[in-house]
């Protein structure tokens, strides 16, 4: 915009200069003027009219020339005024442009400073934010570390408390188990001692009863043996020329009803005929009488046989 106005001002200035040059030329011609016409007195009216016409033409020409000069002067003045106005406007435009450029430069400088200040402020704010975040992270780290330490301390304390309680329970359990074991061992020992004492008592009683029973049985068996010997003597027939004073051991196998199943002379009567006679008497005496006490009965029994009552 400013360059366009400068160009217009320059053109107008040239126009004004050319106009002034043209006016100067016309003015020079007017000053010189046409050569004077010498008046000649003639009597010809046509000449007077011609002269009058020439004078009128000259005056018209002079008037037109003056009008042209005035118009040219006015135009020149207008052009000069316009040129001056254009120059003034150009100066104003230049000053405005300079002011605008200065303002733009000031604004740009201010913007640069503002931008630098903003960048600096942003950097400072970012720095402070980074420091705040860093401090927050450090605070969180310290809090986490403290919490971790507290948790570890609490865990160790709980573990120690649990260990103490476990050891206490274990000691109590061991003491209880030991007491129970000792009580059980004592009870078992007492029960064992009592059982052993009872067993000894029963054994002694059984031994006594067995001894008594055995005595009764032996006594019953002895009596039964005498009964058997007496029954055999009833069926014994003395072989001819055999002595009557002898004794021998006879082993018999009896059935439960007293039937003689076998007989054997375990200690000889003194001779084979006597042994055979005793065996024959045993077989003839079958079935043998049973003892009054059934417990005195034995299937295998040995008795001493003699022909008289002397061996009874």
Automatic annotation (TrEMBL):
InterPro entries: Tol-Pal_TolA, TonB/TolA_C
Domain of life: Bacteria
Chain intervals with Low complexity compositional bias: 67-89
Location(s), subcellular: Membrane
Organism the protein comes from: Solimonas marina
The encoding gene: tolA
Name of this chain's protein: Cell envelope integrity protein TolA
GO molecular function: toxin transmembrane transporter activity
Membrane topology (UniProt): Single-pass membrane protein
